[in-house]
Batch of 2 targets.
Target 1
Amino acid sequence: MSDTHGLKLLSTLDEDGRLVVELAEETLPAPKGGDVLVRLEAAPINPSDLALLFSAADLQNADYGEGRIVARMPEGARRALAGRVGQPMVIGNEGAGTVIAAGEAPEAQALVGKRVAVIGGGMFAQYRLIGADACMALPAGATAEQGASAFVNPLTALGFVETMKRGGHKAMVHTAAASNLGQMLVRIAQEDGIPLVNIVRNEAQAAILRGLGAEHIVDSSKDDFPPQLQSAIAATGATIAFDAIGGGALISQILHAMEQVVSKDEPYSRYGSNRIKQAYIYGGLDMSPTILTRSFGFAWNIGGWLLFPFLQSTDAETLERLRRRVRDNLTTTFASHYKARISLAEALNRDAVLDYNARRTGEKYLIVPH
Amino acid sequence: MSDTHGLKLLSTLDEDGRLVVELAEETLPAPKGGDVLVRLEAAPINPSDLALLFSAADLQNADYGEGRIVARMPEGARRALAGRVGQPMVIGNEGAGTVIAAGEAPEAQALVGKRVAVIGGGMFAQYRLIGADACMALPAGATAEQGASAFVNPLTALGFVETMKRGGHKAMVHTAAASNLGQMLVRIAQEDGIPLVNIVRNEAQAAILRGLGAEHIVDSSKDDFPPQLQSAIAATGATIAFDAIGGGALISQILHAMEQVVSKDEPYSRYGSNRIKQAYIYGGLDMSPTILTRSFGFAWNIGGWLLFPFLQSTDAETLERLRRRVRDNLTTTFASHYKARISLAEALNRDAVLDYNARRTGEKYLIVPH
C-alpha cells in the first residue's frame, strides 16, 4: 500500500500568545505491526476537545481566513498553557470510521474493512494511523455517526457508576445533567436501579430529563434550590457527586446538603459526620474558581476525575464488560444527538466556531471529515 | 470508694443564639469494669477545643461574670451549629493526670496510682471517668504538663507521616508550620529523613523553625512566595500537603506549584500531569472559603483530615508503635511549650479568653484544674 494523503486540524499557540488553528495536509505511511489506518467518517466536538482546540482564545475578535483562524490568547490563560507553546496540537479525542489498511499483527488484520469507533486524539482529521487496541469494531449496520461518540461519554458515564460502587456509595448526584453524557447516565441509572439526583440549570434542561423519565431533577436557577437539593439527596441517599461545572459554590452546596442529610440522626460533633462525602470534578463549564465553604464537616474529599486514569485503574475484565455494554446498546442507552454536521473546513467558519464553542447543553456538533 | 465531686467546663448554645460557657459542679461515681477515674492535672487548649468552646461567638462584647461567660453567636455561624443547640457540651480533647480509682478489670487496675495521658473529650475538668484504653501511662518521672499534649499533636504529626507513606508520597508540605504541631513535625522529619516544606506566615515563625534546623522554610507573606514555594517543592519532591489554615488560595498555590514541578519534564497535556497531588485540610485557622483555582490539572485530591478517623483506619500494631514513640520521646521530639498556665476559673477571664482564643502560633495555654 502506498502513502495516504489527508487533512487534519492543528492548533498552535506561539510564544506571543497568538493561537493559530488551521487545516494541514499530512502524509500517512502504510500501517505496520499492530497499527491500523482508519478513514475517519465522523468525530464529535466534545468540551474536552474545545479546551485543547481554542482554550480561552478570543474567538469573537479572531481573524477567520481560508482554512485558518488566528486568535489572541488572553494574558491570564497563557501561563497555564506554557507547556504547549510552539507545538502544533492535533485535536479530537474520538471518532468513527472504516479500517482501510492494517499491519501484519492478527488483531490489526482482524479489523480490515470493519467500521470502528476509535479513541486516542487527533480524530479531527481525514485519516488516523493508530493501534488496533484503540479501536472497537461496531455492530453490523451501525453508522459512523452512531459510533462516533462510543467512547468518551459512554465510558465516562459507566465510569461514574463504577467509581460510585468502588467508593461504597449507593446513589449519586450529577450536574449539567441534561448533557448527552447526563442523558446516558439517566438511562444507565434506570437500567441499573441506581438513585440519581440530576442538577440542571434551567427549565428546558429539566424538561429534557423529565422526558426521559428521570425521577430526581433539581434546577439550580430556582430560589428554592437548596431545600430541593437536600430533599432529593435525602430521598436517594446520595453521598457522591460528579460535577461538570467546576467553578462557583455548587459543589459546596451539594456537600453541605449531603452533610445535613447524613448528620441528621447523629449526635452533634463539631467535626461533622464521619460519613464520607465525595465530589469529583470532571469538567470545567465554569472556569472560575471552586468555592469551598467547608460547611460540611471534615469527612469529605474532592478530586479531579478523568476517563483515562479511570480506565487505567480498571481491570481488563471490567473494561471489556463496559465496552460490550456500549457496543450492544449504541443506538439506545448510549445514543448521542447532534445539532449540526460540518466538514473540517466548516469547523473553522466564524459562525460555526462561535456556536459550537458556546458548549450549550444539547447542542453538540459532529465533524464529518470527508 | 464514695462519689467524687469536681468542676467541669460546659459550653451551651441556646436557640436564641446565646452561648453560655460556665463552670459546673459534677458528681462522679466510682469507676466500674474497664473504667478509671483520673484526677486531671493539666490540659492544653488546642484550636480544636476552641471551636467547640466558643466557635464564632462575639467574645469582645460578651458578658464576663463569676465563672460564667454569656456571648452572642453571630447569625451566620448559627446554622452550622444547629446540631448542638440546647446541649451542654463538655470541652477538652486531651490532658494528663493521675488515676485515683479503677474498675475491676485488670487493664484498669493496672493504671491505679499511675500518671497518664488521656484522650476523649471533657478534659477541661477536675476529674474524668473514662475507659482505660483512652489512657497512656507516662514514663516514670514525667510531669502532667509534659504528658498533657501527648495525644493530639504527636499522633497528628505521626499520622501525617503515615498518611504520606500510604499515599505513596515521598515528601510533604505543611502550613502554619511553626505551631507546636509543626515543630514536632520538623523533628520527626529530621529523625526519619523525610523532606518537609514548612510554610509560615511571618519572619518570627521562620526564625523559630530555623532555630530547629528546618531546611525548607517559605514565608507566605513575602512577595516572592510563589517562586520560593515552587523551588522548595522542586527540591523536596513534595506531592502531599497538610494544611491547618483552610481558607483562601494557599492550597491552590501549593497544588499549582506541585503541578508545575511534576509536569516540567512531561509532554504537554491539557489535563495536566497524571501525578496525583494531594492536600488535606486538618484545621481552620482561616474560616473563609477555600478558593480552588484548579490551575493544577485533574490529578488532584483535597479532603478533610482528622485524627480520629486516621486512628480508626490504622492497625493496632502501627498504633502501638506510634504511641510508644510518643511515650519514649515525650520531652524531646514531642515536647510542647505553653505561654501560660491557668485554672478552670481563670479560663473564663476576659483577658485570658481574648488572648488564648486569638490562636497565635506558639502561644498555647495550659489549663491546670487543681
Target 2
Amino acid sequence: MKATRSTGRAIIDCDVHPYPKSVDEIRSYMQEPWKSRYRGSGRGFFDNPVHGMRLDATPPNGGGAGTDPDFVREQLLKPFGHEYAVLMPRAFCNLLPDPDYATAIAAAYNEWLADTWLGKHNADGVFKGSITIAHQDPHAAAREIERWAGHPHFVQVMTDSGARAPFGQRQYYPIYEACEKHGLPFAIHPGTDGMGINVQPSPGYPTHYIEWHTCLSLAFQAHLVSFLTEGVFERFPGFKIVLVEGGVSWLPGLMWRLDQEYKALRYEVPWMTKRPSEYLRDHVRISSQPLERPDDDGHLLQMLTMMDAEHILMFASDYPHWDFDSPKHAFPKLPDAMARRIFYENAKEFYKL
Amino acid sequence: MKATRSTGRAIIDCDVHPYPKSVDEIRSYMQEPWKSRYRGSGRGFFDNPVHGMRLDATPPNGGGAGTDPDFVREQLLKPFGHEYAVLMPRAFCNLLPDPDYATAIAAAYNEWLADTWLGKHNADGVFKGSITIAHQDPHAAAREIERWAGHPHFVQVMTDSGARAPFGQRQYYPIYEACEKHGLPFAIHPGTDGMGINVQPSPGYPTHYIEWHTCLSLAFQAHLVSFLTEGVFERFPGFKIVLVEGGVSWLPGLMWRLDQEYKALRYEVPWMTKRPSEYLRDHVRISSQPLERPDDDGHLLQMLTMMDAEHILMFASDYPHWDFDSPKHAFPKLPDAMARRIFYENAKEFYKL
C-alpha cells in the first residue's frame, strides 16, 4: 500500500477503460471467419458477413458504392436502359429512441437528396426520390411530408420495416393522411428490424445474418396483415403502399390464409367491406428484388400468376447492394404482357410518371 | 374532518379496490361487439372473439369440448375412419416465468394423459400422445422426455411456438438430444406466441385476433429457418420436427428464399452441407390444418406439388377447435397417391405406427 503524492491516499481504481489503437489490434488475435468480419465492439450486429455492396460498384473517382450519380448512370441506367430510378436513401433514423433527433436526420436526408441527386445531378429527371420520415413521431413525419409534397421529383414517402408496432395501427395515421392528401405512396423497406428501439419480427433474436435476412420478409407480411385488418385502406381510400425488398412468393399463401380467416372472423373487423386480397390491386404493390428463383422456372411463373404479378409486382434492382437483381437475369422468360407491366407500366401508373 | 372511533384520527385511504359481483355487471354497461366478448379484466387478450371450440363438440354427458374420449370416438374417429389420432394437449406452460412451475405443469399433463386418454380410455390403442415439455428449462424438459420415452403410446414431444428465442439456438439442444436418443419427433404447435414471457413474432403486438392468428404462421417460418441455419439437423442427424397448425402454403416461397440466401451466404453457416430445402424430406413434416383454400383449386395443387406435399404434409383436423378441417372437405380432389400419403402414410412412417 503506497500513498500517492497528489492525494496522500492509497488508491485502487476499479473502472478504467483500455482501448486498442485500431480494430486491427483485436483482429490480430482472432481467427477466420471472425477476423475479417469484425469491425469493432458492437458493430457487425446484423451486417452482412461477406460484403454489403457490389464490389464493382465503387465509383472510379472516389467515394463508396452508390455515392456518385454519374457513375450510377454509367453502370446501371445506361446499360439497362432505365427510364427512371426510384431512389431509396438509407437514413436508419427509425431505430433511434429520440424522435426529435430522428426527425432531424430525416429532414437532413431529404434536403441533401433534393440538393444533389434530385437537384443539381438530375438535369435529365431520371432520378425520382423518396421522402424519408421518422415514423416514431407521426405528426412530425406528416409535417416533413407537407414540406416536400409538390416537389417535382419526390414520388413517395419511405420508412424502414423495423418498428415498435405493426403499421396498420392508428398512431401512424397522421402519416397516411398526409400521403393520401398529396397522392404519395408509402414505401416500406427493410433495414432497422430488431435494431435500436425496434422489436425483432421473429420469436426472439436470430443468430446469423442469413437467418435475419431471410426472415426480414416476415415483418412485411405482418405489416401487410395489419394494414388490411385495421381497415387503413377503408379509412384512407386514396392511400397506397409499396413493399420494397420484402420478398415476393409469400404473397399468395398469406392472402389465402387471411381470406380464409376473414371468412370466419369478419365479425371482428366489420370495417373490412371485402376480402383482404381484394384490396391489393387498388392499394398494394410489391417490388421484385430479391426475387426468389426456384430450380423450376415453371413454379415461379405459377406463383407470379397466383399473385397477379401482372398488376402487383414492380421491378427493382437494389443497386448497389450485394444481392442486386439484374433486369436481364433476375427473371425467367416471362409472357410479354406480364414483363412489360412488371418492368415498366406498373411503376409508371403507381408513381404517375 | 372527523376522527374515527378506532384510531382517534381522521383518515383518507387512497387505494381501495371495488369489484363487480360478476363480469355481467360490467357487461351490462357495454355495447356489442365488446359485450359478448368481455370475460373479465385482462381476459380475452388473444382469445377468439367468436368462439374457440366447435359448438357441436360439447359432450352430451357434460364437460367441455375435447374432454370425453368416447365422444371423440363417436364424433371424429368413427365417422371418418381414423386409424390413429395424435393428441396434442394444451398445457400453456411455456408462457410462465417460473421454469419449475412450468415443468411441474408439463409433468402433470403427461401423467394425466398417460392415466386417461393413453391409459384407461385407450384399450383400442387409437390414441397416441405428445409429451408436453416446458422449453424454458431444456435440461428439465430432457428429463421429462426420459421419463416417458418407451411408453407405448407417447409418439412425440411437443411445445408451443411461443418462445423467447428461435428454436434452432443451442440452449434448446438438451431437448433435441433426448428426442434423437429416443426417436421421438419434436412437434411445435401455436398458442403462446406473444403471451407471458414469450415475445410476439411480428413487429410489435397485433391488434385483433384475426391479425394475431393469421401471423402465427410467421413464428413457424422463423423457427424453421433457425433450425436449418443453426445446423440442428447436422448436429442431431436422427432428429425430426413437425410443424403443427402453422400453415402450409408459405413453405415453397420461404425455401426458395432461403436456398437463394444460402447460395450467397453459406460462408457464414459452413455446417450446412447442403441447400436448406434439402433437409426437409429427412427431417421436417408439416401438418395440414388450417389448409389454405384459394378460389382456384388448381393453385393449391400447384402449391402442394412445389412443396413436395406427397412427402412433407400430414393430415390434421385440429378437433375440436373452431377452425376444424374435415377429412372430407378440407382438401380439393387430390391425386390418389398424394392423398394416401398425406392422410395416412406420411404419419405412419414419421411416427413409426
